[in-house]
Amino acid sequence: MIRIQRQSLLYNVPLIFALIITFVSVLIIERSVMLETGGVFMYPLDDPFIHMEIAKNLATDGTWGINPGEFASASSSLLYTMILAFLFKLFSVQVIIPFIVNCIAAVILLIVADKWLRKQGVEIFARLVILTLTVFFLPLPVMIISGMEHTLQCLFSFLFITTFADWAAGERPVAGKLKIPWSLLIYAFLVTAIRYEGLFLVVVACLILLWRKKIISSFILGAAALLPVVLFGVYSITKGSYFLPNPVFIKSEEFQLSVKGVFNFFSNILINKFTVTKTTGSLPGVPPPGISLLTAQRILILLPLLYLLFRNQLKMAGKYSYIIFIVTLTTVLHLAFASTGWFYRYEAYLVMNACVISFFVLNKYWKELLPDKRLYARLLAGILVFALFFPFVLRSAAAFTKAKQACVNIFEQQYQMAQFLRKYYPGTPIAANDIGAISFFSKAEVIDLWGLGSIDVARSRKKKYWTPEFLDSLVKSKQAGLAIVYDEWFDKRLLEGWTKVATWQISDNVITGGDTVSFYSIDSADARQLRKDVAAFQSLLPAKVKSVYTIPEAD
User: How far is the CA of 269 from the CAs of 32, 204, 254, 332, 380, in angstroms?
Assistant: First the structure.
């Protein structure tokens, strides 16, 4: 009996070790953050607070938006917001709940990945290596502390891809008239409901089914994935908004139906998305390119190369070929029509699935590719593998390195803005462009000048009248008392019409849209009072935040 228990424990060592390194890493990061924030729990992004504010309003008064009673589709993750709303309703509104959800999702993700590796007959040591590398290349601890939906996206995408591959390869027989596994339909629904990019995965799977002349199955699978999109789209239209959430069409590339427009659209994809990695010059509100983009581009080299090297072996095990094909083509679609970056999360589901299948195939077949056991041959092979995965290493190192500072940035900027508004302007309409923390922690009515959380602004961007004159008119019609914005995000003509009172500047910025936020009084008559309030709050600011006043102190 003792021997059996020891064998069972040994068999589970890879999973246990992966869980330990994941949560030890999380603990180290969180401890270092709280030492800087005075014990205040903080996320490394403003976006989790957008989810939480919508979830809070959804739980309390049924409103999908950042302001009670005002619909605004500010989130492209339908399921995650609903999960938070349910938990807020059940346990009350707690800032730590997204973190807990991500911890649970991470545990399930590792269990599912380990179970799949076991099913493929991977030995203990190899499982240990694969799970460990996946944890650090994702990187899973950083996804957990982000408080966003991407850990669940990794889980659902992995379940969808592996389930589809098993079924398509004939390893998952289906009984009944449907001829497609119910579990696959559920995963198709979930992978789209958690993020709209899940449609890329399902589109590729549907194309495979059409190629295999399984037309009905293809349409059923596609319908399951489109169901959450259609349901929310219809609901959104009934609320006077658009079919797609505001972030989807605001952040998407514009397509002009002309010869020049088509040429510019595809040249941008081929040059800026597939080949070039610029590190400067990104537009305000757009994720900056860099190592995240390079890593996604490297997937398009790594997986096809992997298939070519082991094509004979992979042809005999078709399900692995399906996984490689789905992840590769999904990466193509993601690079063409979506973003990478913003704290290494948008491409995380691609990185996770690419890592698991790559490490698995290398472990399973590398001996057949490299029969030469001489040291120099193995050394050269190791150098080649390292070179291929080097962008993954850099991306992971950057994520771990910046995790603490990103949390501190949000604490020193967005959190302090929210505390200021909560103290001096509760219930007062305010204009801003970073809306998460100030919406969640204060009771202010927020006018989102960027358009994610305000349908009037989103409509103006869609219909091309997003002008200084329109924004000024909107802010004044809403009787906003002040604006807190990044100056570089907006036309000077808009800002010159208001009275600039003060600025707050943070140091070592790695995540926010700007290191300096400016306080504007919409009505010049209120400028002195705003300056007085900002000055009174200064003693509560972290020591590293630099305050500068642009109008003299009142006599």
Answer: 40, 19, 12, 10, 34
Question: Please, are residues 293 and 341 in contact by the beta-carbon 8 Å criterion?
Answer: yes
Distances (CA, A) of 103 to 25, 107, 347: 12, 6, 19
Q: Are residues 361 and 306 in contact, defined by beta-carbon separation less than 8 angstroms?
A: yes
d(CA 340, CA 252): 12
Q: Rounded to whole angstroms, how far apart are CA atoms 431 and 447?
A: 5
Tens-digit pLDDT string for the chain (555 aa): 555 555 566 778 999 999 999 999 999 999 999 999 999 999 999 999 999 999 999 999 999 999 998 998 888 899 999 999 999 999 999 999 999 999 999 999 999 999 999 999 999 999 999 999 999 999 999 999 999 999 999 999 999 999 999 999 886 666 555 689 999 999 999 999 999 999 999 999 999 999 999 999 999 999 999 999 999 999 999 998 999 888 877 766 555 555 666 666 667 667 667 776 665 545 565 556 688 888 999 999 999 999 988 888 887 778 999 999 999 999 999 998 888 877 899 999 999 999 999 999 999 887 766 665 666 556 776 777 778 889 999 999 999 999 999 999 999 999 999 999 999 998 889 999 989 999 999 888 999 999 888 999 999 988 889 999 999 999 999 999 999 999 999 999 999 999 999 999 999 999 998 999 999 999 999 999 999 999 999 999 999 999 999 988 765
Residue linked to tokens 């926010």: 512
* 414 strand-pairing partners: none
Distance in angstroms between the alpha carbons of the first and the last residue of the chain: 85
Residue 37 tokens, joined:
């924030």
User: Can you spell out the DSSP letters for 8-48?
Assistant: HHHHTHHHHHHHHHHHHHHHHHHHHHHHHHTT----SSSHH
DSSP states of 105-118: HHHHHHHHHHHHHH
Distance from C-alpha of 348 to C-alpha of 156, rounded to nearest angstrom: 12
**489 neighbors 513 (Cβ within 8 angstroms):** yes
Helix (H, G, I), strand (E, B) or coil at 125: helix
Q: Which pTM does this prediction carry?
A: 0.92
Q: What does the alpha-carbon distance between residue 447 and residue 471 come to, in Å, rounded to a whole number?
A: 10
Q: Which of 77, 61, 73, 58 is nearest to 457 (CA)?
A: 73
Query: Torsions phi, psi of 89, nearest 5?
Result: -65, -35
Comparing C-alpha atoms, which of 171, 178, 179, 200 is closest to residue 188? 200
Side-chain-side CA neighbours of 175 within 13 Å: the count stands at 0
6's CB contacts (< 8 A; 6+ apart) are none
Q: CB under 8 Å, gap of 24 or more: what pairs does 9-15 form?
A: 10/124, 11/124, 13/124, 13/128, 14/114, 14/117, 14/124, 14/127, 14/128, 14/130, 14/131, 14/132, 15/110, 15/111, 15/114, 15/127, 15/131
